[in-house]
Amino acid sequence: MSLSLLPTTGPGAVVSATRCGARTRAVGFPRARWGLIRPDQQLARRRPTTAEFRGRPSFAVSVGSAVPEPGPEDVSIADIVPDITSIDESLPPSRSCIESEAFLAHDGDGIAHGDEGEEWEAALLITGTAVGGGSLALPYFCAAGGFVPAVGLLAISWAALLGSALTLVEPTIRVWEDNPSVAVSIHTVVETYLGKLAGVAAGVTFWILINCTLVSQLAKCGQLAALATGVAANGGACVWATRLGTLLTALVIAGAAFRRDVGRINALATTGLFCSFAAACLAGAAGISTNALAKANLLLAVPALPAIMQTMTYAEAIPTVVDMCRGSRKKIRRVLAVGSLGPALMYVLWLAVTLGRRDLAAFGASGGDLAAKILADGGMLGAATASIAVCASVSTLIGCYLALSRFNADTFHLPLNKGCTKLLALTVLPSLVLAMKGPELYYLAIKFAGTVPVAFMWGVLPPLVMWKQYDGDQKLGVGLKAILAAGVGVSLAAMGYGILGFEV
């Protein structure tokens, strides 16, 4: 038996195909769980627009005993369905470089998926999410261990988080393509592959993680606003100035996060962040001591790892990046790698400026708040640090509000737009209420988030999702099993270590 591809425009086509370059790959299978494609049929990942796709002739598949006309369009069943009986029918199928038929039918934008964005905007979203106001806390957590161990922990964190993010790319794209009318979040991806119980655990953990980040950033922004007003550091006036600053920050940034041009707003904040870091490095370079940089204590450095991981986390933005890049696997992976590398390098320079100065290193080693001291000392370094705090907090808050609004829309089946009052309330109010407690929550929220939620969400769950995906695709080898199992084991051990050593 053979398959012949005949041009058709009728709605009854079972399978459609499109030609990209010199090879043809099956497309469609809206819910056909056996619609998996062999690796040797992969295409270049440029995703044509809806108009380009619809302008091309589709091809229906006719099955019969007649000998088809010879030509390059002839394919066999094995070319389209590698092994029907071995595929896990409960998982989303892999697709071609064209969006699913359901997605095309809705013209992409304006339903639940967000608007398409430029690749550089997506990369800056990752950068802005990874470089948050938590960067000011890094010297505080790393001062006891010294600069060199901190750089090593930064490298480990960057590699681990990038690996975790890349692991989630393919499952997220498959769920995204399969659900054009749903605002897909990490919670949906985990539930699709690991079941409802794991989905609930992921949802609760994700909600806690994002709100911890929001609380820490809002609390710090409130403190910065109070400092900017010039009120006394102690007393009722400072408390209310801090709360007012927290409230205004939440309202302004949440409003910006729901705008259609949020990508450009975040790009401006991230650009300001780059400039601020450059200014801080120039201002602090003169006082750096090589002896101060060389001091190291590995035992005292290890407890800083959860805070570093939390500060560099960005995987919550993956569904948004999938939207912006329209599911292009090559673009998404490039965005994650490039967007996350910048923050790692920036953190190295920031730690060199703070831990490499004798006076600041000694102050930090004694448990003092280095960022607060730099801001209080003023000067060019103090001004640059204040600018870093503002720009980093803006970019992180935007990324978190985007991720949390998508999660809430997905969980509670709400429209993903600023006209939904319930969505706005669920996204903004919980963290805002907690942040009103004051700036003392800044370090506490960062440390807690890195100890449990980060390790579970981005350390334990991604390898399990990848295990299920590859097992369903019949590609799970012994070597990959060992790597994924090791990733889960290390993450669980890190969680246990962090919980035992956690102090309020």
From TrEMBL:
Superkingdom in the source lineage? Eukaryota
Asked if the Swiss-Prot or TrEMBL record annotates the protein with the keyword RNA-binding, the reply is no
One Pfam family name is Trp_Tyr_perm
What GO cellular-component annotations does this UniProt entry give? plasma membrane
Its placement in the membrane is given as:
Multi-pass membrane protein
Q: State the UniProt keywords alphabetically.
A: Cell inner membrane, Cell membrane, Membrane, Transmembrane, Transmembrane helix, Transport
Q: Membrane-spanning residues where?
A: 147-169, 197-219, 239-258, 265-288, 294-315, 335-353, 380-404, 441-461, 482-502
Q: Which InterPro entries match?
A: Amino_acid_transport_2
Keyword Signal appears in the UniProt entry: no
Question: What Gene Ontology biological process does one annotation of this record name?
Answer: amino acid transmembrane transport
Its localization reads: Cell inner membrane
Alphabetical list of PANTHER family matching this protein: OS07G0662800 PROTEIN (PTHR32195), TRYPTOPHAN OR TYROSINE TRANSPORTER PROTEIN (PTHR32195:SF26)
Q: What is this protein called?
A: Hydroxy/Aromatic amino acid permease family
Species the sequence originates in:
Micromonas commoda (strain RCC299 / NOUM17 / CCMP2709) (Picoplanktonic green alga)
